[in-house]
Amino acid sequence: MKFRFEVLVSLKEGLLDPQGKAVQNALPTLGWSNVSDVRVGKHIELVVEADDEAAARSQVEEMARRFLSNPVIEDFRVLAAEEA
Amino acid sequence: MAEARVGVVTFPGSLDDRDALRAVAFMGGEPVAVWHQATTLDGVDAVILPGGFSYGDYLRTGAIARFAPVMAAVQEFASGGGPVLGICNGFQILCEAGLLPGALIRNRGLAFVCRWIHIRSEGLPGSADAPRGEVLHIPVKHGEGQFVASAEELERIESEGLVAFRYCSAEGMVDERFNPNGATHGIAGVRNEAGNVLGMMPHPEHAVDPDLGPTGGQHVLEWLLAAARARVGAVT
Q1: What is the ipTM of this complex?
Q2: Active site positions of B, annotated
Q3: What is the CATH number that goes with domain B5-229?
């Protein structure tokens, strides 16, 4: 079976996010002055072929830990498994 | 005495491999080109991971290169005490590979910086001729050179003396004004605990030949070649 996952990767809390800060600083110039805590991360979609959802999810989590994110600077979340 | 053989790895997207090979020869070493698909290092005495944009910097800088076939050999070489120098993208690769602490993220101002700067040597590992406090005139050119680490890791890096270089003024004063990318504590380069692996954002390979400009890079290449020569003829 094939399972579709989304992996969200974001810079760790407490690390200054230069991209998020630049976006946040640009918003008031467009008239939105009530926005704070902008963080820019990555959204990775992928499809895994596996026997069941649990096996697929555990593989995605290992891939996220070893490769898709850098644990020194980033956190990740694995979202929304569905049969592809 | 046999010359020290220094391998320079070329990844898809490496840019500064040619300059690194030339700098090694200029400084009296024997340059050896190493392809990223290689599974051995062909008995070299030191390794340089050069600057550039390996694998297009996709995912994260260095994230894909660290899994290139040659990196298994580099890991083994480094854990056996072999001297390894990572420059710019090479530094990013060494951090991704876990051979150096911390990580490099987007510059604080988001802009790519390309200019001559000064860095202060905080003492190169195992090298008597690398006095602490020496100021090197050297170029940087990077978009993702802001060194970061967790608070605990940073404390360990500082307390164990793993900082090799900090950005500074021409007189050697470390201050945010002279920090081109927002690096934490002005860190321009770090080493590992054993002292045989060094990573830095500035480019020593572009600054060795006096006919072409300042020569702040000689200091770094001298360290690498001295460490390499110490291994020539050693039983490995």
Answers
A1: 0.85
A2: 88, 203, 205
A3: 3.40.50.880
